[in-house]
Specification:
By secondary structure, the protein is α/β, with parallel strands linked by helices. The chain contains 8 helices and 6 strands, in the order αβββαααβαβαααβ. 40% of the residues lie in helices and 18% in strands. A 6-stranded mixed beta sheet has the order 5-4-1-2-3-6, sandwiched between helices.
């Protein structure tokens, strides 16, 4: 009930009816996997530099319909931040305004469930702009792939009688990618990270027996 009430009041807070579609029932078996690159790790102070996303329909990752935008920040990008994502001020000087970029992302994602790695942070960065601009937080269902990974590994370890609750699992992105044999497309690029996360999701999500097949990446 609390989830229903939260969604109800979130919808009532919407200030722009053009975004009511975010509260529609999601298309069946469709997802949007996304990632952001930012100036830092504090949503209250830092800004989005890029958003990358891909759609999943069934077992297919639609890279031909990928979403990729760069955002021009209001302040200079710090050297420490550049060392991580390699986005320089010159790389984003012709980027979109943050509100415009987020608005485009909302239209790309629609009401589909959102999938990501450390998704709580990426959603917080999007909400940084949706809350003051549209009055709402993202209403989409959120699916964290690291939690799916934990669930899967615990099942495997229990079967092998190797699981111990007091041992902390290695949830680094590189570790998950390596263990699941996901191809490495490039690090700290929002779109490539979104595609790799999509592959992780398709390997880990529960599926009906009739749906089980290898993930397909469309050109």
């Amino acid at each position: 009930m609390s989830g229903f009430l939260s969604r109800f009041f979130n919808k009532r807070a919407l200030t722009d009816p053009n975004y009511l579609f975010l509260f529609d029932p999601p298309p069946p078996d469709e997802y949007v996997v996304f990632d952001t690159e930012t100036t830092g790790l504090n949503p209250a102070e830092d800004e989005i530099l890029s958003i990358g996303a891909v759609k999943i329909i069934g077992n297919k990752i639609l890279t031909s319909e990928k979403f990729e935008v760069f955002v021009k920040p209001t302040t200079e990008i710090k050297t420490e931040s550049i060392k991580i994502h390699h986005l320089r001020n010159i790389d984003v000087e012709h980027g979109l305004d943050a509100v415009d970029a987020v608005s485009r992302f909302l239209r790309f994602a629609g009401s589909r469930p959102l999938v990501g790695y450390h998704l709580k942070f990426d959603i917080a960065m999007i909400n940084k702009y949706t809350k003051p601009q549209f009055g709402i937080r993202l209403p989409n269902q959120a699916i964290e792939v690291s939690q799916l990974y934990v669930n899967r590994m615990q099942v495997i370890d229990r079967i092998q009688n190797a699981y111990q609750a007091d041992i902390e699992m290695d949830l680094r992105f590189d570790t998950i990618v390596k263990r699941l044999k996901v191809p490495i497309l490039g690090k700290h690029d929002a779109t490539n990270d979104a595609i790799m996360t999509a592959l992780i999701f398709l390997k880990l999500r529960p599926q009906k027996k009739a749906q089980k097949s290898k993930p397909i990446v469309t050109p």
